[in-house]
Design brief:
mainly alpha, rod-shaped, Rab GTPase-binding effector protein 1
């Protein structure tokens, strides 16, 4: 019986050990479950944070794209305005240059007409003076041929050499 008691004691000890192991297992499973629950909660929390950060990143990227588009549009608008202003200034410059050229041309044309008129007037006067001079010369020649001029008169002062020199200077 001692052997049976020994066996019973061993069985009781093993059963006690199994109970302790089962309790220990349950405790570990409970701790594992709690840890797993905490880990899952942390994972879900981090996943939510990552989603929020991704949303923020997408919004920031969208704002950057919008800002770039806006800046590009502003640059394009300013460049277009500059081109238009430059074209306007070039057009104004051409118009002013053409107007100044036309005005200068008109002034020169007026001056040229005045000079041509004065030249024609002087040529006419020159012809009249030459005609009068020739008439005077003919009269003097006729008077000399008819009678010699008395020495103190105007006809006597005009010698033939003086008359021909005067004629040459008027003709030139």
């Amino acid at each position: 019986m001692a052997g049976e008691e020994d066996k019973d004691a061993k069985i009781a000890a093993l059963q006690q050990q199994v109970l302790q192991l089962q309790e220990s297992k349950q405790l570990l499973e409970k701790e594992f479950g709690e840890g797993r629950a905490k880990l899952k909660q942390m994972y879900l929390q981090k996943e939510e944070e990552v989603r929020a950060l991704r949303l923020e990143l997408e919004e920031a990227n969208s704002r950057v794209v919008i800002a770039e588009c806006t800046a590009d549009n502003r640059v394009d608008t300013e460049q277009r305005k500059c081109r238009e202003e430059l074209a306007t200034l070039e057009q104004l410059y051409r118009e002013e240059a053409e107007a100044a050229l036309a005005e200068t041309r008109q002034q020169y044309d007026v001056q040229l007409q005045q000079l041509q008129h004065n030249c024609n007037k002087l040529q006419h006067e020159k012809r009249n003076i030459l005609q009068l001079y020739r008439q005077l010369q003919e009269e003097v020649e006729q008077q000399r041929a008819a009678s010699p001029p008395p020495p103190g008169t105007a006809a006597g002062l005009l010698s033939p050499g003086l008359l021909s020199g005067l004629t040459k200077s008027i003709i030139a």
